[in-house]
């Protein structure tokens, strides 16, 4: 990694990497992509330091971690949402003002039509052969954001409803009912239990 850090002339990016490495375990290519997507979104949405953001990551692989450690977006505080489409893509937005039903967001995608211009990185992306994280990240540093495509969308602001806490009539455990159902999801669909 030191080899790559030497190529970075941006103290802000260096500080970000120093925080991501112990959190994620090492600087993976996916985590570096997450950092770059975050920084792109900061510019595109004019996100200020300390301002709360929300992110939906379309893969669980690496990408969510920079958003967690650098911006405090977690699953528990609902700042991080994972919709696992197996895509290197993320949608980012700021907090909505009171009463707003939708909010401007940006969806950023690692674009194969652009990564093709960086053959070593493209080979990593398409999993064509084994490419080291060092080599893949070197190309990302060289590309300097030139591998992403994005567009703006309006996303709905979640409405906070009253929690309808119910006791399941089979297992006796309490759960938050979505409507007025009397069985928890496990008891309603025992064959669909997931661990
Ligand atoms: Zn139950």
From TrEMBL:
<dbReference type="Pfam" id="PF02663">
    <property type="entry name" value="FmdE"/>
</dbReference>
<dbReference type="InterPro" id="IPR003814">
    <property type="entry name" value="FmdEsu_dom"/>
</dbReference>
<feature type="domain" description="Formylmethanofuran dehydrogenase subunit E">
    <location>
        <begin position="23"/>
        <end position="141"/>
    </location>
</feature>
<dbReference type="InterPro" id="IPR053194">
    <property type="entry name" value="tRNA_methyltr_O"/>
</dbReference>
<protein>
    <submittedName>
        <fullName>Formylmethanofuran dehydrogenase subunit E region</fullName>
    </submittedName>
</protein>
């Amino acid at each position: 990694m030191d080899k790559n850090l030497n190529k970075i002339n941006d103290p802000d990016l260096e500080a970000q990497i120093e925080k991501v490495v112990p959190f994620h375990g090492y600087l993976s290519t996916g985590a570096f992509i997450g950092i770059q997507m975050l920084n792109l979104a900061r510019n595109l949405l004019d996100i200020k330091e300390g301002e709360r953001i929300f992110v939906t990551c379309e893969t669980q692989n690496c990408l969510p971690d920079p958003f967690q450690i650098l911006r405090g977006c977690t699953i528990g505080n609902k700042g991080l949402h994972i919709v696992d489409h197996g895509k290197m893509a993320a949608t980012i937005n700021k907090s909505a003002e009171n009463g707003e039903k939708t909010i401007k967001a940006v969806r950023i995608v690692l674009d194969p039509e652009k990564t093709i211009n960086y053959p070593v990185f493209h080979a990593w992306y398409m999993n064509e052969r084994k490419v080291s994280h060092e080599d893949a990240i070197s190309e990302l540093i060289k590309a300097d954001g030139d591998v992403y495509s994005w567009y703006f969308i309006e996303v709905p602001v979640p409405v906070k409803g009253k929690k309808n806490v119910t006791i399941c009539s089979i297992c006796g455990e309490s759960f938050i009912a979505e409507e007025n159902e009397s069985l928890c999801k496990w008891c309603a669909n025992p064959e669909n239990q997931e661990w």
